Amino acid sequence: MGNTFAGDGYSDKALDKRVAGVLKKTPLIDGHNDLPMRYTMQVQGNLDQMPFTSDLSAIKKPTQTDHPRMLQGMMGGQFWSVYIPIAAYPGASGDVARVLTQIDVVHRMITTYPDQLELALTANEVIDAHRRGKIASMIGIEGGHAIENSLANLRMLYKVGARYMTLTHSKGLRWADSATDEERVGGLSPFGKEVVHEMNRLGMLVDLSHVSVNAMNDALDVSSAPVIFSHSSAFALTAHKRNIPDEVLLRLKVNNGVAMVTFYPSYVSETVRLAWINLRKKVNAQTEDPKKQAKLYQAQLPTLPRPTLADVADHIDHIRNLIGIDYIGLGGDYDGMPPGPVGLEDVSTYPALLIELLRRGYSDSDIAKIAGRNILRVMQDVETVARKEQARRLPSNAQIDELDAATPNPTGTL
To answer: Which CATH class is domain 28-269+305-403?
Structure first.
């Protein structure tokens, strides 16, 4: 249909119709949703206490996700995060068991709601599920601490359905540095690079959200497949360490990967980011007790400024203007963030963002790429690389203590 600007007289109804037409043909795929964690934290994994087919915005501790709102949001696919906390460098014994419990939550969601959800392990399975009117459900591990420094564990987590792994979460590992922790290995250690190689061989997406800039660059140096950022935005607009610098975005284009723009408030607005920093200083001055700090943060949330849907669209604009339309996706981070931007409060609001992009002159083809075509292309490319890698080499038996003998390990533990 070509570029159509708001001045061309397109009504809201006409824009709604265009978005619906695109999302009927192309699944809208979100890169990161923490509802499984909410099930574990709020109801100890008891799905009956928070029925996915009910409106969960009305419960005592409301979620940002449920099936009615996903339908309203015209969603076609979701990477469900199987997040497990990492309290300190470099993770803890038992993390594999903990992440398996979270993976089980996702599998039970799919089994409990077969008319709504369908497990998808490949790009073609995502497309097939969408054609059948189901929400294609993929599994993403958030934090490489989940593998406990073992490629065998990595392979077995792939076997039970994990299709991406974020190399770190908020704390660094023996083999990878986090964006929000001190640097210890200068990016990826030799074992960290072997993790990336083995993920390439398996066909598991390498997710660079949460990692340090040096780790981003090391992964881009060694990966033979496109990488993703499952939920990150542009550092040039919001100077949060979790965002992607322009120099890395330029490398992402060469890599043919995708940046899935997040809606997390302090990642999409510099004003909000600075407000959070000031609040953190204020809370830390009052108490060092984590539980008391959490209560203080919760009490202050209503007073903090919130970004808007337009702020998120600005990040998409920036990435498009820098590297083009083919490297952008969506990674809302619903149920892993405080109240979302105004206009993007929950998963029902994705069409509003796409309508805003149409108003800014994006074409129907552009929003199809952002909604799902770009991440599907990356998934297909990763699968192609895996077939080639598996034909030429066997699973790696590399051990961290051998590869990283010269790498600093301050704790001497995991």
So the answer is: alpha beta
